[in-house]
Amino acid sequence: MNKVKLEIEAHSENVSMARVVAATFITPYDPTVEEVSDLKTAVSEAVTNAIIHGYNENGGIVSLIFSAENRVITVEIADKGIGIENIETAREPLFTTKPEMERSGLGFTVMEEFMDSVEVQSTAGEGTTVTMTKELRGAVE
Amino acid sequence: MKLQTEIQLNTRGRVLVAAPSGEIDHHQAERFRTQIDSAFEKSSCRHILLNMSQVSFMDSSGIGMIIGRYKKAETRGGKLVLSNMSEGINRLFEISGLSKIVTRAENAETAISMLGGNFNE
After folding, report:
1. Per-position DSSP letters for A12-28, written without gaps between them
2. Confidence band for B118, pLDDT divided at 50, 70 and 90
3. Which of A37, A97, A113 to mutate to test the interface with B (most CBs of B within 10 A)?
4. How many Å apart are CA A118 and CA A77, to the nearest integer?
5. Which residues of B touch A (CB under 8 A)?
6. Is the model's pLDDT at B21 over the cut of 90?
7. pLDDT reported for residue B17
8. CA–CA distance, B20 with B51 (Å, rounded to integer)
9. Mean pLDDT, chain B, integer
10. Concatenated DSSP letters of B99-118
11. pLDDT at position A93, please?
12. Which neighbouring-strand residues pair with B11?
């Protein structure tokens, strides 16, 4: 079992840092190029959501916990922002509360597509935690 | 593949050719959107070609940016074409349903000839 914790200030330029850590974290497990890309994309979506929806781009802390056990990668991404009023609606493809920002409303759809499981826990006024898992099936010795 | 994110913009006939490089996430999509729109508005171009050959990463923020430029080209009765897409970007493209409305071309030259960029002005 391995674990890495990361806390970043909720600035959009920090999302790339979260992606780099995600990619670095799984490197020892011989992932395929596609698995690295899937994880990076899912992390990018969840962290971006925390910054622009959770904190409304007003700053705050986004915490990430990466863990690995038997080639199953778990990523927990948490914010203490405004929370999601209706998780079911938020997860619907193309649903967005910010169309004026050209948000596509595909964040959760992408996370679901690229990871094996995506769980969302949210309390209005307290924050949101997204927990995603992915089993690395790629490189076999 | 460049690590630094930047965009090259030029025109070919009535096609604005935009070639972003690096990573397209929320932060960069915002920058690219402003730069492409400003070049488009200053030009007499009708169409936009997004050459994706130098893009190393894209998330759904990029999809939003592409839809926005599709609409932008539409305001002048033009089209948006994407070229040189990597496998990863193509997957995102399929998931988003964008593949149903935006034309893809293998490379920039094919895209430009599809848009008639060699002829008119």
Report:
1. GGGHHHHHHHHHHHHGG
2. low
3. A37
4. 11
5. 23, 25-27, 29-30, 33, 57, 59-61, 63-65, 67-68, 87-88, 92, 95-96
6. yes
7. 96
8. 7
9. 91
10. GGTSEEESSHHHHHHHTTTT
11. 86
12. B16
Q: Which residues of chain A have pLDDT under 70?
A: 139-141
Tokens found for residue A24: 């670095």
Contact B2, B22 (CB under 8 A): yes
- State how far the Cα of A82 lies from the Cα of A23, in Å rounded to an integer: 29
Q: Which residue has the tokens 């488009």?
A: B40
DSSP, collapsed to helix, strand or coil, labels residue B83 as strand
Cα–Cα dist B102/B100, whole Å:
6
| pLDDT tens string B22-52 | 999 999 999 999 999 999 999 999 999 999 9
Of B30, B65, B95, the CB nearest to A110: B95
CA distance A16 to chain B (A): 8
Minimum Cα–Cα distance from B25: chain A residue: A44
Note the pLDDT of residue A79: 98
Chain B contacts of A113, Cβ < 8 Å? 95
Higher pLDDT, B117 or B8: B8
Q: Please report the ipTM that was assigned to this predicted complex.
A: 0.90
